[in-house]
Amino acid sequence: MKLSNNIGEEAIQDVVKAHPRIGEILNDFEIGCVDCSVGICLLKDVVSIHALGEEMEAKIEKQINDYLDKQ
């Protein structure tokens, strides 16, 4: 995944805290990592670990980047 602002290299808990909308996007794709009590996985790994396939990953990547581009 190529995410704007290198946000893919950040821990999911930090990403969701700073950008709740990204948590909503992940929830839309049934990636429930938003509620994880550990939250140290990198955003890019959270998506790839669910093995959703290239097409779904591309949709998530686009939605996150579209959101970030508006910030």
Give a quick rundown of the structure.
With 71 residues, the chain is mainly alpha-helical. It has helices at residues 12-18, 20-28, 43-48, 54-69.
How would you explain this protein's 3D organization?
- By secondary structure, this protein is an all-alpha fold.
- The protein has a single domain (4-69), classed as SP0561-like, CATH 1.10.3910.
- 54% of the residues lie in helices and 0% in strands.
- Helix 1 crosses helix 2 (20-28) and helix 2 (20-28) runs antiparallel to helix 4 (54-69).
- The longest helix has 16 residues, at 54-69.
- The chain is globular.
- It starts with 11 loop residues before the first helix and ends with a helix.
- The mean pLDDT is 88.
**Average of pLDDT:** 88
Shape by Cα distribution: globular
Q: In which range does the helix fraction lie?
A: 40-55%
Q: Compute the number of helices.
A: 4
CATH architecture: Orthogonal Bundle
Give the H and E element order: HHHH
Low-pLDDT residue spans = none
Radius of gyration: 11 Å
CATH class: Mainly Alpha
